[in-house]
Amino acid sequence: MDAPLAVIALHSLPAIALSLSLPGSLYLAGLTLAAAMPTRPIRCAGPAPARPARVVLLVPAHNEAGGLLRCLRSLQAELLWDAEARIVVVADNCDDDTAAIARAAGISVLERHNAQLRGKGHALQFAFEQIDDADWFIIIDADTDVERGFLSKMRQAMATGADALQCRYGVREPLSSTRSTLADVALGAWNVLRPRGRQALGLSVGILGNGFALSRRTLQALPYSAGSIVEDVEYHQMLVAQGLRVQWVDNTQVRGDMPDGAAPAAQQRARWEGGRLRLLIEQGWPLCRAVMRGNWRLLDPLLDLCLLPLAWHVSLLLLTFLLALLLGAGSVQGLAAAGLLIVALHIGLALHLIKAGRAHLRALLGLPRYICWKLGLAGAIWRSAGRHAAWVRSARRDH
């Protein structure tokens, strides 16, 4: 390459890096601004129904014998005041005592064994097909506690005539370790701030995989056929494409376990982010075409898929800022700094929304190390994005 061309290419690097991060920064800015707006109270749609909705609290479980009982006790406490709800455990490809423990606790159990079709999406599809007497299903992971009054507040949201619901989803013991506290901050941004922002903008808020609810009417219109590693994201795209909407329930939450230890945490992150990358590879262009043809409701799922994880987004912004500083690209440097400020405001509002304490602020001191750890997962994420990548349960502490 000639020297002048090499110089031009070198000086174009900051602009190229900025172009990769700018859409994500604008998307984050929009969601952050919308999430800062006051939430509207839940209102019933029309007169009260003749009878309460029949609700199934559905617990998909794969080898959850160690912690299942605590989850069931949390759910059973909700049933004390609700005669029209029941719990069903889906013991999916289990080779431990998951089914026996659930039955001993007085819970109905569906057992599924299929070595070829593995994963949560297949377990849910099986349960939805087997249970024909429910008006609503609320999906609760087997490592989860629900907040007191959870079922009552979800019922209030069901009465609005919603197609589907999603409540807050956080960490069960957020102060047990620095890793868990940082996870609580991350989920505060991903599982609270962003859905809240989408709700304020009139968008479908997304499905977070835990603490979401689907009506029988919705499942009849769109059967649950998502079988990827990130089946919740996949099914949400299908819902939006059908003109259906997930509504946000901001006044209650579920809290689930995070992986215990660096290796299980890395496995879970690689699975989540690799699954999203695979979905982007497969669905990115079809979503783009649908948006270009005027189906604007699919723009948000497309932007959500294209948005880099925050650690990668911040790394790209820092790289852009440093390149612009070294090469004297002042305008690019300013835009990169603005992108970093947007991320800071995004995290700050997330901390406010989850009522973070001093432990959360102290945990933020570990962000540089966390970002380096996330960057080190690039290879594992790419492998998890493979067409034939299999779902694997992450190891968690047993209670």
Automatic annotation (TrEMBL):
The cross-references to Pfam families, in alphabetical order and at most eight, read: Glyco_trans_2_3 (PF13632)
Q: In this protein, which residues make up the domain named Glycosyltransferase 2-like? A: 136-327
- InterPro entries noted in UniProt: Glyco_trans_2-like, Nucleotide-diphossugar_trans
Membrane spanning residue stretches = 12-33, 302-329, 335-354
Mind listing the UniProt keywords for this protein, alphabetically?
Glycosyltransferase, Membrane, Transferase, Transmembrane, Transmembrane helix
The answer to whether keyword ATP-binding applies is no
Fetch the Gene3D superfamilies from UniProt.
Spore Coat Polysaccharide Biosynthesis Protein SpsA, Chain A
Q: Which family does it belong to?
A: Belongs to the glycosyltransferase 2 family.
Q: By what name is this protein known? A: Glycosyltransferase family 2 protein
Which organism does this record belong to? Answer: Roseateles albus
